[in-house]
């Protein structure tokens, strides 16, 4: 169980900036790994949307299954969204164990109430008291140390969205005291993003939330490095680009019966790329050695 967690720890220790696209299936995981990313991410937003529901309606079992299937398809480590830990400290300890057992290298746990509400997507903050959040992180770290000390615990606070750094930074600094490895918050503007990296005692992960509706900034990777962030979750990029490409294609296909943005040569190339990334030639070879002689 420890190999991918040790890999993630080594990347962090080596100060490798981790740009982690969010995936929601094994094929997407293979694409990310084949593109050279050192780590990847399974987010709650993309997991919920890919099931045509919403992150707050996902169960722990569903999120572990989605993340575990993606992680199992590749050799790179995965970080996953564990929401609000799926309950109180006792439940959060089980959450850590289940994600670790599924082959995930780290999770983030937030200070939202549980069960989460759909209004979370309207940037309505339902924060639990700081003491409850600190306890949840403390017991998550206890479970980490019992299961795999290399498993990474990221403390996430959503309070900056409504209450600013004055509320968010102390929560993350308290999480540092409880044993968290990294921190995550949601700065509302570039000035807050810079301050957060200076004032938090945890190395910070930035969430690049493309298409967000509350004005949170989209930075370049170099800008994040310059501010001192150690990682970036690209939270919706794969879901939204795939959704928009398919929506455009289906509109034309329905109207005309065909799709003109790709010719047959392009389709053959894409089909071969899919077969290559899933390893179809290896399957052929094994069958040729056994049942297809």
How would you summarize what this structure contains?
The chain is α/β, with parallel strands linked by helices and 293 residues long.
Integer-rounded radius of gyration: 20 Å
Strand percentage: 5-15%
Q: How many helix segments?
A: 13
Shape: globular
The CATH level-2 architecture of the largest domain is identified as Alpha-Beta Barrel
Can you count the beta strands? 8
| The level-1 CATH class of the largest domain | Alpha Beta
Q: Which fold name corresponds to the CATH topology of the largest domain?
A: TIM Barrel
Describe this structure as you would to a colleague.
Helix 2 packs across helix 4, helix 5 packs parallel to helix 6 and helix 6 runs parallel beside helix 8 (165-178). The chain has helices spanning 2-13, 26-34, 44-50, 60-72, 89-101, 130-147, 160-163, 165-178, 190-199, 221-227, 237-256, 264-278, 280-289, and strands at 18-21, 40-42, 78-81, 106-110, 152-156, 182-184, 204-208, 231-234. The model has no long low-confidence stretch (mean pLDDT 96). It has an eight-stranded parallel beta sheet with strand order 1-8-7-6-5-4-3-2, with helices on both faces. It folds into two domains: 2-242, Phosphoenolpyruvate-binding domains (TIM Barrel, Alpha-Beta Barrel); 262-293, no CATH class. It is of the alpha/beta class.
């Amino acid at each position: 169980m420890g190999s991918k967690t040790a890999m993630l720890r080594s990347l962090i220790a080596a100060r490798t900036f981790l740009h982690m696209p969010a995936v929601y299936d094994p094929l997407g995981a293979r694409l990310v790994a084949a593109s050279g990313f050192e780590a990847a991410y399974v987010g709650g937003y993309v997991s919920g949307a890919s099931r045509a529901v919403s992150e707050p309606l996902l169960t722990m079992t569903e999120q572990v299954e989605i993340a575990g299937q993606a992680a199992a398809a590749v050799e790179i480590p995965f970080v996953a969204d564990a929401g609000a830990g799926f309950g109180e400290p006792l439940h959060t300890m089980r959450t850590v164990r289940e994600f670790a057992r599924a082959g995930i290298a780290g999770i983030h746990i937030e200070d939202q109430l549980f069960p989460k509400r759909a209004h979370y997507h309207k940037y309505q903050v339902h924060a639990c008291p700081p003491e409850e959040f600190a306890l949840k992180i403390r017991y998550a770290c206890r479970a980490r140390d019992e299961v795999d000390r290399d498993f990474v615990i990221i403390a996430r606070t959503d309070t900056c969205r409504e209450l600013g750094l004055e509320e968010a930074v102390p929560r993350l600094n308290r999480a540092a005291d409880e044993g968290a490895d990294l921190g995550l918050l949601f700065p509302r503007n570039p000035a807050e993003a810079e301050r957060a990296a200076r004032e938090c005692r945890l190395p910070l992960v930035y969430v690049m939330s493309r298409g967000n509706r509350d004005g949170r900034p989209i930075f370049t990777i170099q800008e994040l490095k310059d501010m001192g962030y150690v990682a970036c979750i690209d939270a919706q990029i794969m879901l939204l680009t795939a959704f928009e490409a398919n929506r455009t294609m289906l509109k034309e296909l329905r109207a005309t019966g065909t799709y003109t943005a790709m010719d047959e040569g392009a389709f053959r190339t894409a089909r071969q790329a899919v077969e290559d990334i899933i390893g179809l030639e290896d399957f052929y070879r094994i069958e040729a050695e056994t049942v297809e002689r």
